Amino acid sequence: MAAAAAAAVGGPQPPQSELPASGLAQDKAATAAHLKAALSRPDNRAGAEELQALLERVLSPERSLAAAAGGEEAAAAGGGGPGAAEEEALEWCKCLLAGGGGYDEFCAAVRAYDPAALCGLVWTANFVAYRCRTCGISPCMSLCAECFHQGDHTGHDFNMFRSQAGGACDCGDSNVMRESGFCKRHQIKSNSNIPCVPKDLLMMSEFVLPRFIFCLIQYLREGYNEPADVPSEKDLNRVLQLLEPQISFLEDLTKMGGAMRSVLTQVLTNQQNYKDLTSGLGENACAKKSHEKYLIALKSSGLTYPEDKLVCGLQEPSAGSSTLAVQGFVGATGTLGQVDSSDEEDQDGSQGLGKRKRVKLSSSTKDQSIMDVLKHKSFLEELLFWTIKYEFPQKMVTFLLNMLPDQEYKVAFTKTFVQHYAFIMKTLKKSHESDTMSNRIVHISVQLFSNEELARQVTEECQLLDIMVTVLLYMMESCLIKSELQDEENSLHVVVNCGEALLKNNTYWPLVSDFINILSHQSVAKRFLEDHGLLVTWMNFVSFFQGMNLNKRELNEHVEFESQTYYAAFAAELEACAQPMWGLLSHCKVRETQEYTRNVVRYCLEALQDWFDAINFVDEPAPNQVTFHLPLHRYYAMFLSKAVKCQELDLDSVLPDQEMLMKLMIHPLQIQASLAEIHSNMWVRNGLQIKGQAMTYVQSHFCNSMIDPDIYLLQVCASRLDPDYFISSVFERFKVVDLLTMASQHQNTVLDAEHERSMLEGALTFLVILLSLRLHLGMSDDEILRAEMVAQLCMNDRTHSSLLDLIPENPNPKSGIIPGSYSFESVLSAVADFKAPVFEPGGSMQQGMYTPKAEVWDQEFDPVMVILRTVYRRDVQSAMDRYTAFLKQSGKFPGNPWPPYKKRTPLHPSYKGLMRLLHCKTLHIVLFTLLYKILMDHQNLSEHVLCMVLYLIELGLENSPEEESDEEASVGGPERCHDSWFPGSNLVSNMRHFINYVRVRVPETAPEVKRDSPASTSSDSLGSLQHSGTAQVFSLVAERRKKFQEIINRSSSEANQVVRPKTSSKWSAPGSAPQLTTAILEIKESILSLLIKLHHKLSGKQNSYYPPWLDDIEILIQPEIPKFSHGDGIAAVERILQKAALQSRMNKRIIEEICRKVTPPVPPKKITAAEKKTLDKEERRQKARERQQKLLAEFASRQKSFMETAMDVDSPETDIPMEITTAEPQVSETVYDCVICGQSGPSSEDRPTGLVVLLQASSVLGQCRDSTEPKKLPITEEEQIYPWDTCAAVHDVRLSLLQRYFKDSSCLLAVSIGWEGGVYVQTCGHTLHIDCHKSYMESLRNDQVLQGFSVDKGEFTCPLCRQFANSVLPCYPGSNVENNLWQRPSNKSVQDLIKDVEELQGRPGAFPVSISSETNLSKEMESVMKDIKNTTQKKYRDYSKTPGSPDNDFLFMYSVARTNLELELIHRGGNLCSGGASTAGKRSCLNQLFHVLALHMRLYSIDSEYNPWRKLTRLIEEMNSQLGNEEQPEVPILYHDVTSLLLIQILMMPQPLHKDHFTCIVKVLFTLLYTQALAALSIKCSEEDRSTWKHMGALKKNTCEAEKSYDVLLSFVISELSKGKLYHEEGNQECAMVNPIAWSPESMEKYLQDFCLPFLRITSLLQHHLFGEDLPSCQEEEEFSVLASCLGLLPTFYQTEHPFISASCLDWSVPAFDIISQWCLEINSFTEQHTEQGKALLIQESRWKLPHLLQLPENYNTIFQYYHRKTCSVCTKVPKDPAVCLVCGTFVCLKGLCCKQQSYCECVLHSQNCGAGTGIFLLINASVIIIIRGHRFCLWGSVYLDAHGEEDRDLRRGKPLYICKERYKVLEQQWISHTFDHINKRWGPHYNGL
Fold first, then answer.
1. What's the rounded Cα separation, in Å, for the pair 287 and 1408?
2. Number of other residues whose CB lies within 10 A of the CB of residue 1
3. How many CB atoms lie within 10 A of CB 427?
4. Strand duo 1787-1789 + 1778-1781: pairing
5. CA angle (1657 as vertex; 1653, 1661 as ends), nearest 5
6. Is 450 helix (H, G, I), strand (E, B) or coil?
7. What's the number of CA atoms in the CB half-sphere (13 Å) around residue 1204?
8. Which of 758, 1065, 1153, 1812 is the most buried (most CB within 10 A)?
9. What is the value of pTM for the model shown?
10. Are 1672 and 1475 in contact (CB under 8 A)?
11. 1766, 1760 in Cβ contact below 8 A?
């Protein structure tokens, strides 16, 4: 043994390849055992050395790498190619680990010691996992399917999801999820009863694995060639391919359980091992080379390798102090500008951003060591380094993650990961595959950072936060450009460039997502908020986004290239700024956290101040530019809001001085003004993208991080700044200052006239929102949620999921308002009613919707909230329309209501100042002016403006200061301009203040100038007027400037006023327009008087306002002003006047006075004329509008009824009657309307008319089964569906059986085909000339519009009803009169009729259209026949043994008739009890179809010898001559299918058919059918029954009614058939045949009737179509007798008293017993040889049940779990898109290239085989149903809905889904009625690729 080992180590040794394999294996095992023994001794040095030497040799990377690199010659030399050496090495390792035993046994042994407390299953992208919010502590928690189903999550809020980046199962980890959610396997506490691991089991592993891992690392070093350029993907992948087995081996080791994992952990983290093996100091040349490569790789990564100098910062952080100490910021100028410059520059060149050079920040505020130093001390660290270098290969990632259940490893790995963080970011930036790499990074980091304990530890020990913030900052610094905001030349501010790949492709996403993840832990966030240095750096980072993506308004021409960078900008602000902000905010919820808020606010303000300085901002924003990105403002706003709401901080303590507030409000206000400009189409030249930005800014995912903080910040500024200043700023920003003049004309220097109105509306709307919104000013979370929900529901009914999506939840997952949380559901049920989905056949699929409750409309509808939250302006209109409809319906208000005024939640005391806006003179002047202008009908004012004005007045009255001093002492000080307007600032008192004269500046052209000054005045009185109250010219701009100056002087008396520029001349350019002059207008109005006059104007009556309190003084004492009142403008004015009167006695008195005085109209006469004119105009408009509505409604109803005709399968009454069936004697020929040329006329041979038809192959009939219970979709391996009990299969078997024994041509007349792939013909009932149709098709062909159909295949849509069609069925020229004549009964005897029939069939030429002379009609008939044939595949047409025989065509043609009749029967529910006209009656094309078929059938005359008619109606004497011949006999007549015979007989007759002949044929065939029924019955009876019946019947044989008595006939049939061998039982098969039931006469009668019924039904249908007779309706039990009498089988004198006997319908044309014996003789001669087959052919199963789709399980999960992992039977892989056929249950790969056959993918192929071109597939991964119809396909929708009645396409939400039976019924109905083409609109070609 020792010798062998010695040989193995050093001795001379035969080359290994010569040893036989088995010997080798034994040799390895022996060596391993020996070494294990040696190592087990106490003194094991010798063993260890021996083992080292062996490993050195086995695991040397030189051999294999040479083989890999050198290619062929090396491989030839090494023998065995690249893979051999590695495999050899792996074999050795396995042997050594097992220590001489078997490797598998070793694995099992180690597994026994696994303390499996954690699941830890690692999965990659696209894996289906579960997340339960009820059990999760971390929002990232996930479970594998197995653990989820083993645990109990009933009633929890869980969902299934498809993993994006990969993940791992958290079951058993109590840091991430609650223990109650653990599954059964992981509930057991660990270490309870796991025995200790025996030492010797893993001893070898401890020796072998370090070498193995080192070998792996050497491979990685060798394989990475650092060329000048980035190594190509190919090289990296090749190395990885080589290493696949090794990494897999490691992965398998990790799966052995805890014991092995802890050994691996030891190996990976042991620093000594690493040092010994990798230092590269030994004499081994290979190791040296490897170490050099490693150093080169480090260097090229921009990293230094500190030889042995310890870098202070990373290895031993000094306790507690952050490396980013605050002092570091003051003067630290590092060398960052140069570090990465080489690769940055060359990227820069290629970027093509020529114009805007990147900005480099040279001064660095970072600790360089974070970015550039890496020192590896263990295998784990270097392994991770290479994992990153190779861009995170999936296998490596999985191995590293599989180790995580080991706690010690978890900590070590997390630290290593953090240590490499900067390096990861650098690699990610350079990567080509940044998407995949991002996913893999997050796959790892989410496992590490979701664990609070771990995150805290790493934060403390490795400065995780410093590293993350620095790395983020560093990453963004690579793409900065100079900001162009405000002062383009001198700006010092830099922003990120949104066009850069880094932002466009979201490359920063993994880093930001980790940052958000760790900030969600309280302990980590606290450290962040306490660390001033970090906060400064973070604000620095945020300021990079401040002002990015600047928009400049295009004023001249349209921008040529619409940049789409705004997506990147919004995403970046949301993800990199807002989400971390929400994360931090979630930890500032209580008083104790005030300090944090103060810190954030402080550094935020500092950053803002720096920003204002950098962009050189003074007081005016630059015109025509806007940025939507102000993250610093928003941080500031949100922390302020939190401080007041949750932390009880005093707001003023965190607010800056007035000057800063003025600056702060400018940019958010600029955004609000720009929104109005964008909606006024002033930015239209910037393209659509600017609209996109305006929408995104208010869209639900962004609004609470963007518009809400902006409005809140403006509210804060407004509550603290001078109100006059604020109001004038608003109107100035909105550019409508010039409009606010009393004069009727004005000049606006900054705005075009057409934009003025909408900008004014915008400004007023903004003020209303600013003053009404309480989102951050005192509403509780639940109130906010309720308001949001009401606003969304008022716009439209919403599905549950869209509501979840539309309600802005706090983006931070830990915030508490989680979608689907308790509060969400309870609020939803409080405000909305659920409308379950309804289904109309042919209607669209509806989803379950929520709709607002009536009381919500009544009390909570808030137009302000709706306006704030609408992305599209039309939604506001939609909300108003719904509100109006509600008021009409509930009878509350009939007219057009105005948006209701809603009481607001009380303001939080900190914001009381906001209401001062309503009580400032500036606003009052504006309101007064606007009221006046509206009253005087100045241009540019809308009802909307008035509405907002009144709303603001009402708000002011609601929020008036408590004490109203009527005599307000005039405040001393400089006389201000607006003091000449109003004395005080309280709205209540200002309302009654009369303004007599106003001095205005008007263009000289204005009418005011021409007018004299007030007539009666002399010069002196004019002088006195001057002082007595002429309001001065009022300029908002001047006012604002004055205020601004004042505020500035107040706040800074130092010398910095010098900086302020003189008033900019942009706004008022005095000399530019026509000269302005001053004029004085006489007004003599107050706000109250204006309101009263407005009331008159709105109501259109004089003196319409009468103060209500004069009648009922109670009104003022107990003001019952409803909280929420509905009505129009009149109601609003009344409400305001009442509130004004309530608030002051003076107002009440003045209102009364005005009402008394107002009788003579005050405005000058011409105005009333104008008013009258506008009123007339309005009235006329109103009338015109009503007329239009009426017309439209009429048109719509017409269209609707028309659509119903075209679409609806189930409503015959509304159909447009078809003229075809109307039989009016006076018309000689049927008249058809052509829907193309509009002419009416008969169809003629030269110009035939045709019906628009759709031909489609159908296998629906073939799917009938004989059991009523539909088959279930298989959901386990055991359940399978076998198709041999389907109708199609049974008919197939029968035909092939017949063809085995009988003559082929005869067989083809004995059955019908078309059960599979039969051609179904349907029509919409419209007709057209065939020549018109041809030109129509031509025009379609030339029409290049993309249609949903293919014109080349003859497809088109009906020109009238747009129903899909593909052929035209010619109408046979004929007259109805003829028809009527034909129907009169002739009194011929039966025998004569039989002869007639025979003769007529024999006369092929007796056809009105002679075939020889081709007419247009016959040509069309032929072409349509070709169409019919081409509709189905050849295999469904050719059944004969001799291909192309005429019998085949013959069979096909009458089978088409059969298919259409059978399908119609199915559409009627399988029986004719309902009677009446056909459901498709008026639109049936069977009549025309029959003509076409008959015409063609008569081309083939059946040789009279073989005509079955003879066999049915004559006795043939010499039977034997036939049998003498060698050839196969003909099919015995009793084996014929009677319905097929009927069709053959009728189609062989000349058309139109005589009714008598028809009845005659039916009578004859019924006798045959009855005999067949008796024969089948006789076989079903037992031997005893047969003999009993035989004797009983024989007694009655000679009675007179014998031929009509079934017992006699039965006994005769039995005795005849007994002559053959038919009844001879073979062996013991008797019991199988015998029916245990004894047959009673009733049951026999029932059997006979059931046997005959299908024939009677088809015959009655046929009669109905040929002769237009109605079908009687009846009960089910009397169906037989009713149909029989309808067909003329029952003699008319038949009495109905005694029980009905089917035999009484028999009418034998030949003596019954003779003909029966003749028929039986044929059978007997056949059964001589083939008894069994003879039996089988006699029993025909004719009782088919209706076809059904497979029955689906209640819960979708059962389908999903079984099928989504099921392997495909063809390619044995798990398909990417599995699908299952709902008709037959076959499992197929959708789009799977693996299963493609001759360019057809599997679904398309299956749809042809299973449904003759129609396939219905359920897509497993999407829960949707897809329909394939021929060459087109469409997505049908889903039949599985969630608890809220919604589909979940693609299983995005992953909520449990349940079957919706109504939908499934609709699907089945469309399948059976072949209406997929008509009902589903969105079809597309599939190019055989599904």
1. 103
2. 10
3. 19
4. antiparallel
5. 170
6. coil
7. 13
8. 1812
9. 0.81
10. yes
11. no
For 197, which DSSP code? P
Sheet containing 1249-1258, strands listed edge to edge, beginning at the edge strand earlier in sequence: 1318-1329, 1249-1258, 1367-1370
For residue 788, give the H/E element and its range.
Answer: helix 781-795
Q: Report which of 982, 994, 1000, 1029 is spatially closest to residue 742, judged by C-alpha positions.
A: 1000
What is the maximum span of the chain, computed from C-alpha positions, in angstroms? 145
C-alpha 771/C-alpha 948 separation (Å) is: 12
Residue 1336, SS3 per DSSP:
helix
Residues 68-73: contacts with CB under 8 Å, at least 24 apart: 68/238, 68/242
Q: In three state form, how does the secondary structure of 1511-1549 look?
A: HHHCCCCCCHHHHHCCCCCCCCHHHCCHHHHHHHHHHCC
As given in the structure block, the two tokens for residue 1616 are: 């005849």
Cα dihedral 768, 769, 771, 774, rounded to 10, equals: 150
Quote the pLDDT of residue 683: 93
**CA dihedral angle for residue 1843, residue 1849, residue 1851, residue 1857, rounded to 10 degrees:** 30
In three-state secondary structure terms, 1815 is strand
- The per-residue pLDDT for 1054 is 38
Name residues whose C-beta falls within 8 Å of residue 941's C-beta, 6 or more positions apart in sequence.
757, 760, 930, 933, 934
* Residue 854, both tokens: 């009536």
Separation CA 1048–CA 1061 (nearest Å) = 13
Q: How far is CA 1858 from the centre of its chain?
A: 18
Q: Structure tokens of 1796?
A: 């493609």
Could you count the other beta carbons within 10 Å of the beta carbon of residue 769?
A: 18
Distances (CA, A) of 154 to 149, 157, 804: 10, 9, 22
User: Are the CB atoms for 226 and 296 separated by under 8 Å?
Assistant: yes
Q: How many CA atoms lie within 13 A of 1276 on its CB side?
A: 2
Distances (CA, A) of 1735 to 1606, 1631, 1653, 1717: 21, 15, 22, 17
Please give the full DSSP string across 1599-1657, using - where no structure is assigned.
STTGGG-HHHHHHHHHHHHHTTTTTPPPTT-HHHH--SSPPPHHHHHHHHHHHHHHHHH
Tokens of 1176: 């007339």
Q: Are 1037 and 1046 in contact (CB under 8 A)?
A: no
DSSP per residue, 696-730: HHHSTTTGGGTHHHHHHHHHHHHHHS-HHHHHHHH
Q: From residue 599, how far is each of 397, 516, 532, 1389 by CA, in Å?
A: 40, 19, 7, 114
What is the tens place of the pLDDT at every residue in 1209-1245? 443 333 443 444 443 344 456 788 898 888 888 888 8
* Contact status, residue 454 vs residue 448, Cβ threshold 8 Å: yes
Over residues 907-939, the pLDDT tens digits come to 899 999 999 999 998 999 999 999 999 988 887
74: exposed, middle or buried (Cβ count in 10 Å: 0-12, 13-18, 19+): middle
Distance CA 1762, CA 1756 (A): 10
Summarised one tens digit per residue, pLDDT across range 962-984 is: 654 443 333 333 344 455 788 88
Cis-peptide, bond into residue 1552, ω within 30° of zero: yes
Q: Between β-strands 143-144 and 128-132, what pairing exists: parallel, antiparallel or unpaired? A: antiparallel
Judge contact between 1315 and 1291, C-beta under 8 A: yes
At 284, give phi and psi (nearest 5°). -75, 115
Q: Are residues 996 and 1029 in contact, defined by beta-carbon separation less than 8 angstroms?
A: yes
Helix%, strand%, coil% for the chain, nearest 5: 55, 5, 40
Pairing of strands 1318-1329, 1249-1258: antiparallel
Q: What SS3 class is residue 793? A: helix
Distance CA 1503, CA 1446 (A): 13
Q: How confident is the model at residue 61 (pLDDT cuts 50, 70, 90)?
A: low
**C-alpha distance across the termini of the chain, in Å:** 65
